[in-house]
Design goal:
single chain, alpha/beta, Rossmann fold, 3 domains, 6-stranded parallel beta sheet, 6-stranded mixed beta sheet, 12 strands, 42% helix
């Protein structure tokens, strides 16, 4: 394995500069940092974690808390975060909470009690606003998702705008009886924003909102998508399109439509959200909103590393880019 001196020689910098990059210090020019990171990867250099921990008082560990790991979107997001962790010389430790408030609180409790994590990346479902007061003020934290977490760094796609674009696309293809599949009873965060975007798109086009075309779910899964679409079809409510709040919901809805003898997109068009691999290879392939997962991970790590480097930063909300990807399921 290469030494730090060899990395410095390959990058054309001093050994101290390599150390600054490895330890996350921010007073390194961006082009120099990239040159060092490229040399680290090319030479397969791995710093001694024990030595670094003793010297810096840091573990090199970032905790990533997600509600569900068997959801394809989160699985794909994990991969991107792990890759970014390697780039910054950090190890990403992942845990699943199932959106349970007590399990999410346990993460905060561990941080308060001096856990090994240098920083946390959190995507909670159960935490209450009052729980945020328990987060140590000196701990670098990045929140993911569309529910607001005032006072903290956060990165998320604009769920309202993206959903509005998706439904507008369906309207522009001539659909006027559009269902929304994925509404949740607690009406917070992701579900609330996507329902709002759906409603706004209908309003933009002068189409009425019909509660009968709103499909409710308990979680974002294929099963719930199947059940929700089935209930709408069994009710006799006419639909010619559906905006599904996730691709997994859309895949379940696609199966329900097939079971009822309805063709996609000829009889009912579908658009999902998340752009997971499964949707690209479904028959028909699934139109969807593509959130920029790389941008989300880059934003998260950039902010965390700047904080770990000692910069005094105020909280910042970053809107990640997205793209509407049109495939076979909504073609006309």
């Amino acid at each position: 394995m290469a030494s730090r001196k060899e990395v410095a020689a390959a990058a054309g910098v001093s050994v101290r500069t390599v150390s600054n990059v490895v330890n996350g210090f921010q007073h390194v020019a961006p082009e120099t940092r990239e040159r060092v990171l490229e040399a680290i990867e090319r030479l397969s250099y791995r710093p001694s974690e024990l030595a670094r921990s003793l010297k810096t008082g840091r573990s090199g560990l970032v905790g990533l808390m997600l509600p569900e790991l068997d959801v394809p979107y989160f699985a794909e997001l994990v991969r991107v975060f792990v890759e970014h962790g390697v780039k910054y010389g950090m190890t990403v430790v992942i845990d699943q909470t199932d959106g349970d408030r007590e399990r999410e609180l346990s993460w905060i409790g561990r941080a308060r009690n001096g856990s090994l994590f240098d920083a946390l990346i959190l995507s909670p479902l159960g935490l209450l606003d009052e729980d945020l007061k328990l987060i140590p003020p000196d701990l670098p934290v990045m929140f993911l998702g569309e529910h607001a977490y005032p006072g903290f760094d956060q990165v998320a796609v604009d769920g309202v705008a993206a959903s509005r674009d998706a439904v507008t696309h369906l309207i522009e293809t001539g659909r006027t009886q559009i269902a929304a599949i994925g509404a949740e009873a607690d009406n917070r965060g992701t579900s609330a924003q996507r329902l709002e975007g759906y409603t706004k798109a209908l309003g933009d086009a002068g189409l009425p909102f019909d509660e009968r075309r709103v499909g409710w779910v308990e979680r974002f899964s294929r099963f719930e998508g199947y059940q929700s679409m089935t209930r709408i079809l069994e009710s006799g409510t006419a639909i010619d399109a559906a905006f599904c709040f996730t691709d997994t919901i859309a895949l379940g809805a696609l199966r329900a439509l097939n079971d009822f003898g309805l063709r996609v997109p000829e009889d009912v068009a579908l658009v999902g959200f998340d752009d997971i691999d499964d949707g690209r290879y479904a028959v028909p392939s699934l139109s969807t909103v593509h959130p920029d997962k790389v941008s989300i991970a880059t934003t998260a790590f950039t902010r965390l590393m700047r904080r770990l480097g000692g910069e005094k930063l105020g909280p910042e909300f970053t809107t990640a880019p997205y793209e509407l990807v049109i495939r076979e399921s909504s073609a006309r």
